[in-house]
Each structure stands twice: as C-alpha cells, then as structure tokens.
Specification:
It is built from eight helices and five strands; from the N terminus they run H-E-E-H-E-E-H-E-H-H-H-H-H. It has about 210 residues and is an alpha/beta fold. Strand 1 and strand 2 form a beta hairpin. Helix 4 crosses helix 5 (about 140-150), helix 4 (about 120-135) packs parallel to helix 6 and helix 6 packs across helix 8 (about 190-205). The radius of gyration is 17 Å and the shape is globular. The chain starts with a helix and ends with a helix.
C-alpha cells in the first residue's frame, strides 16, 4: 500500500462514524442481530436474515462461518470459512475482513457481520476492527461494549488469546506500521517472545 493510499485509509478509519450507538433498551437475547455502530450490525443467522437486511437497509453481509448462507440477490456478500474451534487461526482473516467492512463504512452503507450464532467468530472479527480504529481501547473494553449491545457475545478462549496478542501489537506499533502487518502470516509466538523481551529490557532499565 502506497503512503498516499495508507493516509487516505487512516483518515477513513478515524473520521467515519465508528463510535458505538447508544443502548436505548436492554437487547433481546432472541434478536437475530444488533446494531453496534451507525453502519455495522453484529449477529447470527436464521431464516429471518433476508427480512432483517431489508428492514434495516443492510446491503452488505460478511459471513464469518463454516457454512454458506443465502441472504438475497441484492446484497454484496463475502464469506470467510472459519471454524469455531480451539485450534483455528482466525487472525489470518483480520485484514481482508477489515477491508471489506471498511469499504461499506466508507460508502456509507450498512453491513451485517455474522456467523452462525453471533457469539464467537463474528464478534472476534469486529473486535479486531475496532481495536485498529481505537488502539488505546483494550480488547476487554471493546468486548464489554459489544456485550452491552449483544449479550450473547463470547469469543472462545483461543480467539481471545489471538485478540489479546493483537491488542499488544496495536498498542506497541504505530498505526501506520500496523495495517500492513495484519496478514495471514501473523505469528503469535514471535509476538509473544518480542513482548517478553521488551518487558525484560524495561524492567532492567528501571
């Protein structure tokens, strides 16, 4: 990505309305999906999805699941095949999912990010996106905000470990350097070793 393109992308990340929508009433656990930001909805999948998209004027859908779900002919649809397992590397999808979501935001179009239940996979992807947008905010704080709008949110322990590692990277690397690093070769072990080394050097200097 060229410097000019990156600057435009950073501007897009910081100036678009990515803040959380207010919680006006307690969410219903039976809701198919819930609104998180002005343009982003988070949820699961069932037979109500086509009607839900129509009622909420959603014309883009990101499916972070192991199965292909029809959403209607008028919807821009993307699917990344992710299993909700303790050995799944979901972080390798952070870049392409972030780009797809931000294209919708930039176009001022509403998007639904979903998996089967809207509990683990889709919330993980959305947390990663929000971590990039708000690097000073912790993963736990973001998850808390998501839970207030969708109580079912509960990424599995493996996904949480990857999010915590990603949080470390977001806080220790300038945003200009961070975006190109969200890639399929994301190495959690190297990041962990680097973090331990930095902590050790900091403690020695103190």
């Amino acid at each position: 990505m060229e410097a000019k393109q990156l600057d435009q992308f950073l501007t897009q990340l910081t100036e678009n309305p990515m803040t959380f929508v207010p919680v006006k009433e307690k969410p219903n656990p039976n809701d198919l999906a819930n609104q998180i930001t002005h343009y982003i909805f988070l949820g699961g999948y069932d037979g109500r999805i086509q009607q839900f998209c129509k009622l909420n004027k959603i014309n883009r859908v990101l499916n972070v699941g192991a199965q292909l779900y029809p959403v209607g002919p008028d919807v821009v649809y993307k699917r990344v095949e992710v299993a909700d397992k303790l050995d799944e590397n979901i972080s390798k999808y952070f870049q392409e999912c972030t780009e797809f979501i931000m294209k919708a935001v930039k176009a001022k179009e509403r998007i639904l990010v979903h998996c089967q239940g809207g509990i683990s996979r889709a919330p993980t992807i959305l947390t990663a996106l929000l971590q990039v947008c708000f690097p000073k905010t912790s993963v736990d704080q973001i998850i808390k905000q998501l839970k207030e709008r969708r109580p079912q949110v509960n990424p599995n322990p493996n996904f949480m470990r990857q999010l915590y590692a990603f949080e470390v990277e977001c806080k220790n690397v300038h945003l200009r350097d961070l975006l190109p690093k969200i890639c399929p070769n994301y190495n959690l072990r190297e990041l962990s070793d680097s973090t331990k080394k930095n902590e050790s050097e900091t403690s020695k200097s103190v």
